[in-house]
Amino acid sequence: MQTFAKSIEENPLLIYLAALPFTPVDTLLYKTFVDHDIPWVVRGFNKAWPPLRHMFKATDSGVTSVAFFPDGTRVISTSYDHSIRVWDATTGAAILAPLIGHTGGVNCSAVSPDGLHIVSGSDDHTVRLWDANTGAEALQPMRGHSMAVLSVAFSCDGTRIASGSKDGTIQVWDAMLGCTVFPPLKGHANEVCSVTFTPDGQRIVSGSEDRTVRVWHAITGVQVLYPLAGHRSGILSVAVSSDGMQIASCSKDGTIRVWDANSGTQSLTLPEGAQIFHFLTFCPDDKHILAHGSLLDGCRIYSWDVKPGAQVYISVVHKPIHCMAVSPNNEQIVIGYCDGTVGLWDGLLSNKDVTNSEARNRDIVAMAFSPDGKRIASCSEHDFCICIWDAQLGVAAMAPLQGHEKEITSLAFSPHGNLVASGSSDKTIRLWNTTLGMEILPPLRGHEHRVSCVTFSADGNHIASGSSDRTVRLWSTTSGAQIISPLRGHNYAPGMTLFRAEQLPKTAWYQGFKGCGGTFWAFLDAQRHYFMSMWRRLSSRRHSGLELAPSWLKAKEANIQ
Fold this sequence. Notes:
Structural class: mainly beta
CATH superfamily of the domain at 364-557: YVTN repeat-like/Quinoprotein amine dehydrogenase
Radius of gyration: 29 Å
CATH class of the domain at 364-557: Mainly Beta
Distance between the termini: 73 Å
Helix content: under 10%
Number of strands: 46
CATH architecture of the domain at 364-557: 7 Propeller
Largest sheet: 5 strands, antiparallel
Number of helices: 3
């Protein structure tokens, strides 16, 4: 109804023509009611409903925090405009009037385990408790911090509240009386950006700009472990797994680290990248860590498998994100955006194995068409896997091909289209079967630096590769063995390898191409092992590049055993 409400409203008697043909084909609605005796969409159709359920304007200021109620039916959001708002998680409608009381921007919020109360922290240095059903303040403002409150959390039984502040302290409050339980917890040398309770309510975990995670006894206020150190920059968010066994932290240094909650030892470091992670959480099933991070081109949501640390999901590019929360059933995400909107998303984490197939929106560094034009292989910046796409439908044809340990630099389809070769900064070439979606040989090793280019011979029996080690190497696609000794002579990394001149156009331009090794670019005839220098350098006011000569400028037999 949300998707087709306007069409149904305008043409209620034409629902079979106006709505059903455009229904995603993998949905129960489509499978039950679509009759192919009427028109239907044959290309460009969706397989599932769009993941964005609602996008609504919450405020004219940025949304600073979001949280689900325990039953997943309501969502709260806070803002720089001093307000807290409560929304219906199904319709996106406001349930209560804005909760007004803070005299400064509201930075953080949490919902009590029974769903009856909301706690908020503000730039006005106070913590406030609200009745979640009426929106009224349940207690007098809790005062004790000398600077802005950046993070708040309820204990598992709802009887205590922890708050972290820019003043570097953590306060623990009695949620019934509104008074502090013991003196402020001091130890951090800088502002406390994130606090949370362990699931049993016995410990408090805090993360700070001082680059440490600290664990405190929630009853006595004593530090339980030595500071967990390892991050090279301020920590922005901490989370505890639902079994209480693991602590996760994310930092401005671009890493996420997982710690053993009992010993304090670091068990996992997720790969460092160019992004900065602002928030993270364990998914309710404890199998994945979810985080949002920012790059120069925008914000994304990431997910990793907790045990192997493998990245399993990257979202499309979002507008700037300030905060995020996951529903208790693991099926929805609420995102607070810096422009004051709130987005409710479905299905991003509903599958047991979340894949990373359709949302690789970083810069594409290599692409290749299959010989019949039906498939496209692509890889993008900072990704270590290859996506195979259906060129007609524009959808992923299979799960990403994973195996490289560093950025992939080049791709090529075999003449029959059943194989893809990939070269990488990890110095290897890998050969993939595009029908089975798997590697068919061990990595081809021999290059001493990054592989810059790969290509197949016309019969598909050989692969030629060029590398930053200034060599060209020839490999068997059957055994993976090098057929001849490395071909040396380039002054720079080869930027392209080709097998026979008959495969090239008579004239080809490469503006400002790097890697021609002086005057000539050497190519190899795989059958006779000839070097063929087929290029001559051109230079004029309008063009500077390389042109394929109509006849060999030089051809001499290589001295190869």
